[in-house]
Amino acid sequence: MNLPTSTPVAASAERPCDADPTPMTAAVKLVECLERHGVDVIFGLSGGAAIPIFDALVGTRIKLVLVRHEQGATHMADGYARATGRPGVVLVTSGPGATNTVTGLLTAHMDSVPMIVITGQTVTGALGKDAFQEADITGISNPVVKYSYAVRDPQAIPRIVNEAFHIATTGRPGPVLIDIPKDVSSAEVHEPFVDAIDLPGYHVPGEGEPAALAEAAKLLVLARRPVLYVGHGAVISGAGPAITRLADATQAPVVNTLLGKGAVDENHPLHLGMLGMHGTAYANKAVMNCDLIMAIGARWDDRITGKIEAFCPNATKIHIDIDPAEFNKVIRPTVSILGDARRVVEGMLPLVGPCDSHDWLRQCQRWRNQYPLKYAKQGGLRAQQVLDRLNTITEGDAIISTDVGQHQMWAAQFCRTKHNRHWLSSGGAGTMGFGFPAALGAKMAQPDKMVWAVVGDGGFQMTMSELSTALVHKVPVKILIINNHYLGMVRQWQELFFDNRLSGVDLEGNPDFVKLAGAYGIQAYRIKRPADIDKVLTAACEYNEGPCVVEADVIREENVWPMIPAGAPLTGMLVEPPQTRLEKPEGST
Length: 589
Known about the structure:
The protein is an alpha/beta fold. The longest helix is centred in the first third of the chain and has 15 residues, at about 70-85.
Protein backbone atom coordinates (compact mmCIF):
# COMPACT_ATOMS: atom_id res chain seq x y z
CA MET A 1 0.00 0.00 0.00
CA ASN A 2 1.48 3.36 -1.01
CA LEU A 3 0.63 6.20 1.34
CA PRO A 4 1.55 9.85 0.71
CA THR A 5 4.92 11.02 2.00
CA SER A 6 4.17 12.73 5.32
CA THR A 7 4.18 12.23 9.06
CA PRO A 8 0.66 10.93 9.83
CA VAL A 9 -1.25 10.59 13.09
CA ALA A 10 -1.30 13.23 15.79
CA ALA A 11 0.65 12.75 19.01
CA SER A 12 -2.66 12.40 20.87
CA ALA A 13 -2.99 8.94 19.33
CA GLU A 14 -0.02 7.73 21.33
CA ARG A 15 -0.34 5.48 24.36
CA PRO A 16 2.76 5.90 26.54
CA CYS A 17 4.13 2.75 28.04
CA ASP A 18 6.85 4.43 30.15
CA ALA A 19 6.09 7.27 32.54
CA ASP A 20 8.10 10.51 32.61
CA PRO A 21 11.18 9.28 30.75
CA THR A 22 14.55 10.93 31.24
CA PRO A 23 15.27 13.46 28.46
CA MET A 24 17.68 12.22 25.81
CA THR A 25 18.63 13.18 22.28
CA ALA A 26 16.40 12.05 19.45
CA ALA A 27 19.29 9.94 18.16
CA VAL A 28 19.54 8.04 21.45
CA LYS A 29 15.77 7.69 21.57
CA LEU A 30 15.80 6.38 18.01
CA VAL A 31 18.38 3.72 18.85
CA GLU A 32 16.48 2.66 21.97
CA CYS A 33 13.31 2.39 19.87
CA LEU A 34 15.18 0.13 17.45
CA GLU A 35 16.36 -2.02 20.35
CA ARG A 36 12.77 -2.33 21.58
CA HIS A 37 11.84 -3.66 18.14
CA GLY A 38 14.47 -6.39 18.42
CA VAL A 39 17.02 -4.89 16.03
CA ASP A 40 20.34 -6.66 16.57
CA VAL A 41 22.30 -5.44 13.55
CA ILE A 42 22.37 -2.30 11.41
CA PHE A 43 24.08 -2.13 8.04
CA GLY A 44 25.44 1.33 7.35
CA LEU A 45 28.00 3.82 6.12
CA SER A 46 28.60 6.93 8.19
CA GLY A 47 28.64 10.58 7.18
CA GLY A 48 28.26 14.07 8.58
CA ALA A 49 24.47 14.39 8.67
CA ALA A 50 24.09 11.03 10.43
CA ILE A 51 26.91 11.40 12.99
CA PRO A 52 24.54 11.89 15.99
CA ILE A 53 22.82 8.58 15.20
CA PHE A 54 26.08 6.70 14.66
CA ASP A 55 27.33 8.16 17.94
CA ALA A 56 24.20 6.91 19.71
CA LEU A 57 24.99 3.35 18.62
CA VAL A 58 28.23 3.30 20.61
CA GLY A 59 27.94 0.99 23.60
CA THR A 60 24.54 -0.44 22.63
CA ARG A 61 23.74 -4.08 21.95
CA ILE A 62 23.11 -3.33 18.28
CA LYS A 63 25.95 -4.49 16.04
CA LEU A 64 26.99 -1.94 13.43
CA VAL A 65 28.20 -3.50 10.18
CA LEU A 66 30.21 -0.87 8.32
CA VAL A 67 29.80 -1.54 4.59
CA ARG A 68 31.84 -0.24 1.68
CA HIS A 69 28.90 1.16 -0.31
CA GLU A 70 25.36 2.10 0.68
CA GLN A 71 23.87 -0.15 -2.00
CA GLY A 72 25.63 -3.05 -0.30
CA ALA A 73 24.01 -2.04 3.00
CA THR A 74 20.52 -2.22 1.52
CA HIS A 75 21.13 -5.62 -0.08
CA MET A 76 22.55 -6.97 3.20
CA ALA A 77 19.46 -5.74 5.04
CA ASP A 78 17.34 -7.28 2.27
CA GLY A 79 19.07 -10.66 2.63
CA TYR A 80 18.68 -10.47 6.41
CA ALA A 81 14.95 -9.84 5.99
CA ARG A 82 14.35 -12.53 3.36
CA ALA A 83 16.15 -15.13 5.46
CA THR A 84 14.20 -14.34 8.64
CA GLY A 85 11.03 -12.38 7.89
CA ARG A 86 12.27 -9.66 10.24
CA PRO A 87 12.98 -6.20 8.82
CA GLY A 88 16.56 -5.37 7.92
CA VAL A 89 17.78 -1.93 9.05
CA VAL A 90 20.04 0.48 7.16
CA LEU A 91 21.65 3.71 8.38
CA VAL A 92 23.34 6.14 5.96
CA THR A 93 24.06 9.81 5.63
CA SER A 94 22.43 12.47 3.46
CA GLY A 95 22.85 13.33 -0.23
CA PRO A 96 24.70 10.63 -2.15
CA GLY A 97 24.63 8.38 0.91
CA ALA A 98 20.85 8.43 0.76
CA THR A 99 20.55 8.24 -3.02
CA ASN A 100 22.87 5.23 -3.11
CA THR A 101 20.14 3.30 -1.29
CA VAL A 102 17.56 3.78 -4.05
CA THR A 103 18.51 0.64 -5.99
CA GLY A 104 18.19 -1.42 -2.82
CA LEU A 105 14.86 0.24 -2.01
CA LEU A 106 13.56 -0.61 -5.48
CA THR A 107 14.77 -4.20 -5.11
CA ALA A 108 12.98 -4.59 -1.76
CA HIS A 109 9.85 -2.78 -2.92
CA MET A 110 9.44 -4.91 -6.05
CA ASP A 111 9.86 -8.12 -4.03
CA SER A 112 7.84 -7.07 -0.93
CA VAL A 113 10.76 -7.20 1.52
CA PRO A 114 10.49 -5.45 4.92
CA MET A 115 13.25 -2.91 5.44
CA ILE A 116 13.81 0.25 7.48
CA VAL A 117 16.20 2.76 5.87
CA ILE A 118 17.24 5.67 8.08
CA THR A 119 18.91 8.57 6.32
CA GLY A 120 20.64 11.58 7.80
CA GLN A 121 19.65 14.95 6.35
CA THR A 122 21.05 18.47 6.34
CA VAL A 123 19.80 20.75 9.13
CA THR A 124 16.23 21.97 8.79
CA GLY A 125 17.23 25.62 8.35
CA ALA A 126 19.21 24.74 5.23
CA LEU A 127 16.57 22.56 3.57
CA GLY A 128 15.65 23.73 0.10
CA LYS A 129 18.78 25.87 -0.20
CA ASP A 130 21.01 23.37 -1.99
CA ALA A 131 23.08 22.87 1.13
CA PHE A 132 26.08 20.54 1.14
CA GLN A 133 24.94 16.93 0.62
CA GLU A 134 21.28 17.88 0.58
CA ALA A 135 18.94 15.61 -1.36
CA ASP A 136 15.16 15.34 -1.27
CA ILE A 137 15.36 11.63 -0.53
CA THR A 138 11.70 11.32 0.45
CA GLY A 139 10.75 12.74 -2.93
CA ILE A 140 13.37 10.76 -4.85
CA SER A 141 12.45 7.46 -3.19
CA ASN A 142 8.68 7.91 -3.03
CA PRO A 143 7.87 5.53 -5.93
CA VAL A 144 10.03 2.72 -4.47
CA VAL A 145 9.01 2.67 -0.81
CA LYS A 146 5.88 1.50 0.93
CA TYR A 147 5.96 4.66 3.02
CA SER A 148 8.36 7.44 3.99
CA TYR A 149 8.76 9.93 6.81
CA ALA A 150 10.43 13.35 6.65
CA VAL A 151 10.96 13.99 10.36
CA ARG A 152 10.77 17.59 11.53
CA ASP A 153 9.67 17.15 15.15
CA PRO A 154 12.09 15.19 17.36
CA GLN A 155 9.21 14.37 19.75
CA ALA A 156 7.62 12.29 16.98
CA ILE A 157 10.52 9.79 16.86
CA PRO A 158 8.94 7.12 19.13
CA ARG A 159 5.67 7.16 17.19
CA ILE A 160 7.35 7.19 13.79
CA VAL A 161 9.64 4.25 14.55
CA ASN A 162 6.72 2.22 15.89
CA GLU A 163 4.61 2.96 12.82
CA ALA A 164 7.51 2.30 10.46
CA PHE A 165 8.03 -1.23 11.75
CA HIS A 166 4.29 -1.92 11.64
CA ILE A 167 3.94 -0.69 8.06
CA ALA A 168 7.10 -2.45 6.84
CA THR A 169 6.12 -5.86 8.24
CA THR A 170 2.33 -6.10 7.93
CA GLY A 171 0.08 -6.72 4.94
CA ARG A 172 2.25 -6.74 1.85
CA PRO A 173 5.67 -5.99 3.37
CA GLY A 174 7.98 -3.35 1.98
CA PRO A 175 10.67 -0.77 2.70
CA VAL A 176 10.03 2.30 4.84
CA LEU A 177 12.35 5.31 4.80
CA ILE A 178 12.89 7.67 7.74
CA ASP A 179 14.75 10.90 6.89
CA ILE A 180 16.10 12.80 9.93
CA PRO A 181 17.84 16.20 9.76
CA LYS A 182 20.97 16.53 11.86
CA ASP A 183 19.52 19.18 14.16
CA VAL A 184 16.46 17.00 14.75
CA SER A 185 18.54 13.94 15.70
CA SER A 186 20.58 16.17 18.07
CA ALA A 187 17.57 17.71 19.80
CA GLU A 188 16.22 16.58 23.18
CA VAL A 189 13.22 14.26 23.29
CA HIS A 190 10.82 14.08 26.23
CA GLU A 191 8.16 11.86 24.68
CA PRO A 192 7.78 8.29 26.00
CA PHE A 193 8.04 5.12 23.98
CA VAL A 194 4.92 4.15 22.06
CA ASP A 195 3.16 0.82 21.70
CA ALA A 196 -0.16 1.87 20.19
CA ILE A 197 -0.71 1.99 16.44
CA ASP A 198 -3.30 4.38 15.01
CA LEU A 199 -3.20 4.46 11.21
CA PRO A 200 -6.67 5.28 9.87
CA GLY A 201 -7.15 3.82 6.42
CA TYR A 202 -4.35 1.25 6.78
CA HIS A 203 -6.01 -2.15 7.00
CA VAL A 204 -4.29 -5.54 6.91
CA PRO A 205 -6.34 -8.32 5.27
CA GLY A 206 -6.44 -11.65 7.05
CA GLU A 207 -8.77 -14.51 6.20
CA GLY A 208 -10.62 -14.60 2.91
CA GLU A 209 -14.35 -14.00 2.53
CA PRO A 210 -16.22 -17.27 3.21
CA ALA A 211 -18.25 -17.02 0.00
CA ALA A 212 -15.09 -16.57 -2.11
CA LEU A 213 -13.38 -19.46 -0.30
CA ALA A 214 -16.37 -21.72 -0.96
CA GLU A 215 -16.57 -20.79 -4.63
CA ALA A 216 -12.81 -21.30 -5.15
CA ALA A 217 -12.89 -24.66 -3.36
CA LYS A 218 -15.83 -25.82 -5.48
CA LEU A 219 -14.08 -24.87 -8.72
CA LEU A 220 -10.86 -26.56 -7.59
CA VAL A 221 -12.59 -29.84 -6.74
CA LEU A 222 -14.41 -29.85 -10.11
CA ALA A 223 -11.18 -29.32 -12.05
CA ARG A 224 -9.64 -32.27 -13.87
CA ARG A 225 -6.38 -30.56 -14.81
CA PRO A 226 -5.62 -28.20 -11.89
CA VAL A 227 -2.34 -26.38 -11.17
CA LEU A 228 -1.37 -24.56 -7.96
CA TYR A 229 0.82 -21.61 -8.93
CA VAL A 230 2.86 -20.50 -5.88
CA GLY A 231 4.54 -17.11 -5.54
CA HIS A 232 6.59 -15.08 -3.10
CA GLY A 233 3.54 -14.21 -1.04
CA ALA A 234 3.40 -17.87 0.01
CA VAL A 235 7.02 -17.64 1.21
CA ILE A 236 6.31 -14.42 3.13
CA SER A 237 3.22 -15.79 4.86
CA GLY A 238 4.70 -19.23 5.56
CA ALA A 239 1.90 -20.83 3.56
CA GLY A 240 3.99 -23.79 2.35
CA PRO A 241 2.71 -26.46 4.79
CA ALA A 242 -0.91 -25.50 4.06
CA ILE A 243 -0.29 -25.52 0.30
CA THR A 244 1.36 -28.93 0.57
CA ARG A 245 -1.71 -30.24 2.38
CA LEU A 246 -3.94 -28.67 -0.27
CA ALA A 247 -1.93 -30.28 -3.07
CA ASP A 248 -2.06 -33.68 -1.35
CA ALA A 249 -5.79 -33.37 -0.64
CA THR A 250 -6.75 -32.37 -4.18
CA GLN A 251 -3.96 -34.18 -6.04
CA ALA A 252 -3.13 -30.94 -7.86
CA PRO A 253 0.42 -30.42 -9.15
CA VAL A 254 2.41 -27.43 -7.90
CA VAL A 255 4.56 -24.94 -9.79
CA ASN A 256 6.37 -21.95 -8.35
CA THR A 257 7.73 -18.62 -9.48
CA LEU A 258 11.40 -17.69 -9.15
CA LEU A 259 10.70 -16.12 -5.74
CA GLY A 260 8.22 -18.82 -4.73
CA LYS A 261 10.99 -21.41 -4.49
CA GLY A 262 11.02 -23.10 -1.10
CA ALA A 263 7.44 -22.36 -0.09
CA VAL A 264 6.73 -25.99 -1.02
CA ASP A 265 9.59 -28.50 -1.03
CA GLU A 266 10.65 -28.80 -4.67
CA ASN A 267 11.35 -32.50 -4.11
CA HIS A 268 7.68 -33.20 -3.37
CA PRO A 269 6.24 -35.71 -5.91
CA LEU A 270 3.55 -33.24 -7.01
CA HIS A 271 6.05 -30.41 -7.57
CA LEU A 272 6.88 -29.63 -11.20
CA GLY A 273 9.44 -26.91 -10.49
CA MET A 274 9.59 -23.32 -11.67
CA LEU A 275 7.33 -22.07 -14.45
CA GLY A 276 7.84 -19.18 -16.84
CA MET A 277 10.51 -17.85 -19.15
CA HIS A 278 13.24 -20.24 -17.98
CA GLY A 279 11.10 -22.66 -16.00
CA THR A 280 11.04 -26.39 -16.52
CA ALA A 281 9.38 -27.51 -19.73
CA TYR A 282 7.08 -29.83 -17.82
CA ALA A 283 5.89 -27.03 -15.51
CA ASN A 284 5.12 -24.87 -18.54
CA LYS A 285 3.42 -27.76 -20.35
CA ALA A 286 1.17 -28.26 -17.34
CA VAL A 287 0.28 -24.56 -17.21
CA MET A 288 -0.41 -24.50 -20.97
CA ASN A 289 -2.83 -27.40 -20.70
CA CYS A 290 -4.49 -26.90 -17.31
CA ASP A 291 -8.22 -26.26 -16.90
CA LEU A 292 -7.75 -24.38 -13.60
CA ILE A 293 -4.84 -22.38 -12.24
CA MET A 294 -4.81 -20.99 -8.71
CA ALA A 295 -2.31 -18.21 -8.00
CA ILE A 296 -1.31 -18.22 -4.33
CA GLY A 297 0.62 -15.08 -3.39
CA ALA A 298 1.67 -14.52 -7.00
CA ARG A 299 0.99 -11.56 -9.28
CA TRP A 300 0.87 -12.97 -12.84
CA ASP A 301 4.27 -11.46 -13.62
CA ASP A 302 5.21 -10.96 -17.28
CA ARG A 303 8.01 -13.54 -16.96
CA ILE A 304 5.26 -16.05 -16.09
CA THR A 305 2.44 -15.18 -18.46
CA GLY A 306 4.29 -14.24 -21.64
CA LYS A 307 1.64 -13.08 -24.12
CA ILE A 308 -1.33 -12.25 -21.90
CA GLU A 309 -4.07 -13.05 -24.42
CA ALA A 310 -2.64 -16.54 -24.94
CA PHE A 311 -2.07 -17.35 -21.26
CA CYS A 312 -4.35 -20.22 -20.17
CA PRO A 313 -7.22 -18.77 -22.25
CA ASN A 314 -9.64 -21.60 -21.42
CA ALA A 315 -8.64 -22.18 -17.80
CA THR A 316 -10.50 -21.04 -14.71
CA LYS A 317 -8.30 -18.61 -12.79
CA ILE A 318 -8.30 -18.08 -9.03
CA HIS A 319 -6.18 -15.36 -7.44
CA ILE A 320 -5.23 -15.23 -3.73
CA ASP A 321 -3.36 -12.08 -2.71
CA ILE A 322 -2.99 -9.77 0.27
CA ASP A 323 -2.74 -6.68 -1.96
CA PRO A 324 -6.03 -5.73 -3.67
CA ALA A 325 -4.08 -3.62 -6.17
CA GLU A 326 -2.94 -6.86 -7.82
CA PHE A 327 -6.46 -8.00 -8.66
CA ASN A 328 -7.37 -7.49 -12.34
CA LYS A 329 -4.06 -5.69 -12.95
CA VAL A 330 -2.76 -8.32 -15.37
CA ILE A 331 -5.29 -11.17 -15.39
CA ARG A 332 -9.04 -11.00 -14.71
CA PRO A 333 -9.66 -14.10 -12.58
CA THR A 334 -12.89 -15.98 -12.03
CA VAL A 335 -12.46 -15.65 -8.26
CA SER A 336 -10.31 -13.16 -6.33
CA ILE A 337 -9.65 -13.79 -2.63
CA LEU A 338 -8.20 -10.97 -0.57
CA GLY A 339 -6.20 -12.20 2.39
CA ASP A 340 -3.03 -13.68 3.82
CA ALA A 341 -1.97 -16.67 1.69
CA ARG A 342 -1.52 -19.04 4.62
CA ARG A 343 -4.81 -18.16 6.29
CA VAL A 344 -6.75 -18.32 3.02
CA VAL A 345 -5.37 -21.74 2.09
CA GLU A 346 -5.96 -23.03 5.62
CA GLY A 347 -9.52 -21.79 5.36
CA MET A 348 -9.98 -23.65 2.08
CA LEU A 349 -8.64 -27.00 3.32
CA PRO A 350 -11.86 -28.19 5.03
CA LEU A 351 -13.81 -27.41 1.85
CA VAL A 352 -11.88 -29.53 -0.64
CA GLY A 353 -11.46 -33.15 -1.58
CA PRO A 354 -9.64 -35.04 -4.33
CA CYS A 355 -9.92 -33.81 -7.91
CA ASP A 356 -10.45 -36.30 -10.72
CA SER A 357 -6.83 -35.69 -11.73
CA HIS A 358 -5.41 -39.21 -12.11
CA ASP A 359 -5.01 -38.96 -15.90
CA TRP A 360 -3.68 -35.43 -15.53
CA LEU A 361 -0.92 -36.49 -13.14
CA ARG A 362 0.08 -39.29 -15.48
CA GLN A 363 0.34 -36.76 -18.31
CA CYS A 364 2.46 -34.43 -16.15
CA GLN A 365 4.77 -37.35 -15.41
CA ARG A 366 5.11 -38.08 -19.13
CA TRP A 367 6.13 -34.46 -19.73
CA ARG A 368 8.62 -34.72 -16.87
CA ASN A 369 10.15 -37.80 -18.49
CA GLN A 370 10.07 -36.32 -21.99
CA TYR A 371 11.56 -32.90 -21.16
CA PRO A 372 14.02 -33.32 -18.27
CA LEU A 373 16.48 -30.62 -17.34
CA LYS A 374 19.75 -31.67 -18.97
CA TYR A 375 23.21 -30.53 -19.99
CA ALA A 376 26.18 -32.01 -21.82
CA LYS A 377 28.76 -33.54 -19.51
CA GLN A 378 31.56 -33.46 -22.06
CA GLY A 379 33.30 -30.59 -23.79
CA GLY A 380 34.26 -28.39 -20.87
CA LEU A 381 33.02 -27.07 -17.55
CA ARG A 382 29.35 -26.09 -17.53
CA ALA A 383 27.60 -23.92 -14.97
CA GLN A 384 24.68 -26.34 -14.88
CA GLN A 385 26.92 -29.19 -13.71
CA VAL A 386 28.56 -27.05 -11.04
CA LEU A 387 25.16 -26.02 -9.66
CA ASP A 388 23.72 -29.51 -9.96
CA ARG A 389 26.61 -30.85 -7.87
CA LEU A 390 26.29 -27.96 -5.39
CA ASN A 391 22.69 -29.01 -4.83
CA THR A 392 23.74 -32.63 -4.28
CA ILE A 393 26.68 -31.85 -1.98
CA THR A 394 24.66 -29.46 0.21
CA GLU A 395 21.66 -31.84 0.06
CA GLY A 396 19.51 -28.83 -0.76
CA ASP A 397 19.79 -27.54 2.82
CA ALA A 398 21.92 -24.45 2.18
CA ILE A 399 20.54 -20.94 1.83
CA ILE A 400 21.23 -19.92 -1.76
CA SER A 401 21.44 -16.21 -2.65
CA THR A 402 21.80 -15.46 -6.34
CA ASP A 403 22.69 -12.50 -8.43
CA VAL A 404 20.90 -11.87 -11.75
CA GLY A 405 21.50 -13.46 -15.13
CA GLN A 406 22.13 -16.87 -16.62
CA HIS A 407 23.63 -18.29 -13.41
CA GLN A 408 20.44 -17.23 -11.58
CA MET A 409 18.25 -19.23 -13.95
CA TRP A 410 20.53 -22.29 -13.84
CA ALA A 411 20.57 -22.10 -10.04
CA ALA A 412 16.77 -21.87 -10.00
CA GLN A 413 16.58 -24.95 -12.21
CA PHE A 414 19.20 -27.18 -10.59
CA CYS A 415 19.29 -26.05 -6.93
CA ARG A 416 16.01 -27.47 -5.69
CA THR A 417 14.89 -25.60 -2.60
CA LYS A 418 13.53 -27.68 0.28
CA HIS A 419 12.93 -25.07 2.97
CA ASN A 420 11.13 -21.76 3.23
CA ARG A 421 13.35 -18.65 3.12
CA HIS A 422 16.30 -20.66 1.77
CA TRP A 423 16.18 -19.08 -1.71
CA LEU A 424 17.06 -15.38 -2.06
CA SER A 425 17.05 -13.68 -5.43
CA SER A 426 16.16 -10.33 -6.95
CA GLY A 427 12.99 -10.96 -8.94
CA GLY A 428 11.01 -7.89 -9.93
CA ALA A 429 13.92 -5.46 -10.17
CA GLY A 430 16.47 -7.95 -11.50
CA THR A 431 19.24 -6.16 -9.60
CA MET A 432 22.77 -7.13 -10.54
CA GLY A 433 25.04 -6.87 -7.52
CA PHE A 434 22.36 -8.21 -5.16
CA GLY A 435 23.52 -11.78 -4.59
CA PHE A 436 26.75 -11.42 -2.62
CA PRO A 437 25.75 -8.71 -0.10
CA ALA A 438 22.34 -10.38 0.37
CA ALA A 439 24.18 -13.59 1.27
CA LEU A 440 26.18 -11.68 3.89
CA GLY A 441 22.98 -10.36 5.44
CA ALA A 442 21.42 -13.82 5.39
CA LYS A 443 24.44 -15.41 7.06
CA MET A 444 24.52 -12.78 9.79
CA ALA A 445 20.82 -13.44 10.37
CA GLN A 446 21.16 -17.23 10.24
CA PRO A 447 24.67 -18.01 11.53
CA ASP A 448 23.91 -21.72 11.94
CA LYS A 449 22.90 -22.16 8.29
CA MET A 450 25.29 -22.70 5.39
CA VAL A 451 24.95 -19.79 2.95
CA TRP A 452 26.13 -19.76 -0.66
CA ALA A 453 26.18 -16.68 -2.88
CA VAL A 454 25.85 -17.78 -6.51
CA VAL A 455 26.94 -14.86 -8.68
CA GLY A 456 28.08 -14.06 -12.17
CA ASP A 457 31.34 -12.34 -12.98
CA GLY A 458 29.42 -9.24 -14.09
CA GLY A 459 27.13 -8.79 -11.10
CA PHE A 460 29.79 -9.73 -8.56
CA GLN A 461 32.02 -6.87 -9.70
CA MET A 462 29.25 -4.38 -8.88
CA THR A 463 29.41 -5.07 -5.13
CA MET A 464 32.62 -7.05 -4.66
CA SER A 465 34.05 -4.32 -2.43
CA GLU A 466 31.94 -5.92 0.30
CA LEU A 467 34.62 -8.62 0.47
CA SER A 468 36.16 -6.26 3.04
CA THR A 469 32.95 -6.34 5.06
CA ALA A 470 32.85 -10.13 4.93
CA LEU A 471 36.51 -10.36 6.00
CA VAL A 472 36.32 -7.86 8.87
CA HIS A 473 33.29 -9.60 10.37
CA LYS A 474 34.60 -13.10 9.55
CA VAL A 475 31.32 -14.02 7.85
CA PRO A 476 31.75 -17.62 6.63
CA VAL A 477 29.72 -17.15 3.48
CA LYS A 478 30.73 -19.10 0.36
CA ILE A 479 30.85 -17.15 -2.90
CA LEU A 480 30.54 -19.16 -6.12
CA ILE A 481 31.46 -17.04 -9.13
CA ILE A 482 30.15 -18.50 -12.39
CA ASN A 483 32.69 -16.85 -14.66
CA ASN A 484 31.86 -16.94 -18.36
CA HIS A 485 33.55 -13.59 -19.14
CA TYR A 486 30.27 -12.20 -20.48
CA LEU A 487 27.11 -10.48 -19.41
CA GLY A 488 25.69 -13.85 -20.34
CA MET A 489 21.94 -13.31 -20.48
CA VAL A 490 22.27 -10.21 -22.65
CA ARG A 491 24.72 -12.08 -24.88
CA GLN A 492 22.17 -14.90 -25.20
CA TRP A 493 19.48 -12.47 -26.34
CA GLN A 494 21.85 -10.81 -28.79
CA GLU A 495 22.74 -14.21 -30.22
CA LEU A 496 19.12 -15.32 -30.58
CA PHE A 497 17.36 -12.09 -31.57
CA PHE A 498 20.04 -9.74 -32.95
CA ASP A 499 21.96 -11.99 -35.36
CA ASN A 500 24.70 -12.49 -32.77
CA ARG A 501 25.78 -8.85 -33.02
CA LEU A 502 27.47 -8.63 -29.62
CA SER A 503 27.51 -5.18 -28.09
CA GLY A 504 28.47 -4.24 -24.55
CA VAL A 505 28.61 -7.77 -23.20
CA ASP A 506 32.26 -8.91 -23.36
CA LEU A 507 33.78 -8.58 -19.89
CA GLU A 508 37.35 -8.34 -21.10
CA GLY A 509 39.44 -7.09 -18.22
CA ASN A 510 37.93 -9.32 -15.55
CA PRO A 511 40.32 -9.80 -12.66
CA ASP A 512 41.65 -13.15 -11.57
CA PHE A 513 39.06 -13.63 -8.83
CA VAL A 514 41.24 -16.09 -6.90
CA LYS A 515 44.07 -13.55 -6.76
CA LEU A 516 41.58 -10.82 -5.94
CA ALA A 517 40.32 -12.79 -2.96
CA GLY A 518 43.92 -13.35 -1.92
CA ALA A 519 44.53 -9.60 -1.97
CA TYR A 520 41.78 -9.29 0.63
CA GLY A 521 43.26 -12.16 2.64
CA ILE A 522 40.31 -14.41 1.77
CA GLN A 523 40.52 -18.15 1.07
CA ALA A 524 39.87 -18.95 -2.60
CA TYR A 525 39.55 -21.95 -4.91
CA ARG A 526 39.26 -22.44 -8.64
CA ILE A 527 37.27 -24.99 -10.67
CA LYS A 528 38.60 -25.42 -14.21
CA ARG A 529 37.31 -28.87 -15.20
CA PRO A 530 34.44 -31.17 -14.22
CA ALA A 531 36.78 -33.44 -12.24
CA ASP A 532 37.49 -30.53 -9.84
CA ILE A 533 33.87 -29.80 -8.93
CA ASP A 534 33.19 -32.11 -6.02
CA LYS A 535 36.62 -31.69 -4.41
CA VAL A 536 36.49 -27.89 -4.50
CA LEU A 537 32.85 -27.50 -3.45
CA THR A 538 33.38 -29.92 -0.56
CA ALA A 539 36.46 -28.00 0.59
CA ALA A 540 34.51 -24.74 0.47
CA CYS A 541 31.64 -26.27 2.44
CA GLU A 542 34.09 -27.38 5.13
CA TYR A 543 35.89 -24.03 5.38
CA ASN A 544 34.32 -21.89 8.11
CA GLU A 545 37.13 -19.57 9.26
CA GLY A 546 35.64 -16.74 7.25
CA PRO A 547 34.44 -16.04 3.72
CA CYS A 548 35.74 -18.05 0.80
CA VAL A 549 35.56 -17.58 -2.95
CA VAL A 550 35.12 -20.31 -5.55
CA GLU A 551 35.71 -19.27 -9.15
CA ALA A 552 34.23 -21.64 -11.74
CA ASP A 553 35.74 -20.89 -15.15
CA VAL A 554 32.86 -22.15 -17.30
CA ILE A 555 32.15 -22.38 -21.02
CA ARG A 556 31.73 -18.88 -22.34
CA GLU A 557 28.80 -19.19 -24.77
CA GLU A 558 26.35 -21.57 -23.12
CA ASN A 559 22.64 -20.65 -23.25
CA VAL A 560 19.80 -21.25 -20.79
CA TRP A 561 17.12 -23.71 -21.88
CA PRO A 562 14.14 -23.95 -21.78
CA MET A 563 13.35 -20.41 -22.85
CA ILE A 564 10.16 -18.58 -23.71
CA PRO A 565 10.99 -15.41 -25.65
CA ALA A 566 9.74 -12.29 -23.89
CA GLY A 567 6.20 -11.45 -24.90
CA ALA A 568 5.70 -14.79 -26.66
CA PRO A 569 2.98 -17.25 -25.62
CA LEU A 570 3.95 -20.24 -23.50
CA THR A 571 3.41 -22.37 -26.59
CA GLY A 572 6.48 -20.63 -28.06
CA MET A 573 8.75 -22.33 -25.52
CA LEU A 574 12.13 -23.47 -26.85
CA VAL A 575 13.69 -26.51 -25.21
CA GLU A 576 16.84 -26.46 -27.34
CA PRO A 577 18.68 -24.10 -29.72
CA PRO A 578 16.46 -23.05 -32.66
CA GLN A 579 17.47 -23.99 -36.19
CA THR A 580 16.29 -20.69 -37.67
CA ARG A 581 16.65 -17.04 -36.72
CA LEU A 582 14.16 -15.87 -34.10
CA GLU A 583 12.15 -12.70 -34.51
CA LYS A 584 12.06 -10.47 -31.49
CA PRO A 585 8.43 -10.34 -30.27
CA GLU A 586 6.94 -6.87 -30.62
CA GLY A 587 6.64 -4.88 -27.41
CA SER A 588 8.79 -7.31 -25.43
CA THR A 589 11.38 -6.44 -22.82
